[in-house]
Amino acid sequence: MILPSIPLNFLFPPPPSLFVTTMSVIGISSLTNAGYMEIKGKHMQYSKFLNEGVAKKEDQMKLSSRTGMFLLYSPSFFVGLSSFLVFPDRDLRFVLLASALTIHFLKRVLEVLFLHKYSGSMALESTLIITSSYTFSTATMIYAQYLSRDFPTPSIDLQYVGVCLFVIGIIGNFYHHCILASLRKEGGKEYKIPQGGLFDLVICPHYLFEIFGYIGMSCISQTPYAFAFTVGTLFYLMGRSYATRDWYISKFGDKFPKDVKVLVPYVF
Q: What is the membrane topology listed in the Swiss-Prot or TrEMBL record (predicted)?
């Protein structure tokens, strides 16, 4: 009798919404599968993995990397921003969650425009898939939060823990993005082994801190959907990190430090 009650201590009940329930199942299953595909070598076609793991298509529609990345994040930013107008009956938890999502994607948009240095292309198909995932998940997370406004607050309130984790995540992610941006001159195409920060311990610390950010947003929200999407994101970024480490080893061979882990320092 104790175990079934544990989730009720820190989660709102699932809202009576077929849409949210369906999106929860789609989100966690599709992201987990995408992470598995990354490990198996079938990659989302962007960044260093463009034309990796798939048959090269000469007629494949592509966008510049900067344009593709801008399209990835900007709709979700506008979804977060517009939620303050669409949902007038807001409590503090809703405001914190919507603000965190808006800040998260605003940061990504500004990084695309002013920080990152791009040299390649991005497949239109991958752009549309990832954009849809970000946009629908952001809208669903906000909507699920709105539907939970009249439910009793979970006895274990994690919203302020969530704010702290979100701030740690967004700062850590930005810091390591700055390190990556410093490795390449504008217009350059050469890849280098990242060093500094947690890059000396794991190959994708920016993903690690992105996971911290999503865990933070889940703790702010405390809805089943938010946690389901975060679990799916965890599995996808684990798979992408695993593939990234393999890519660096294949490119740099013995020059790549073998003690650099995939995602979690000293562990994995």
A: Multi-pass membrane protein
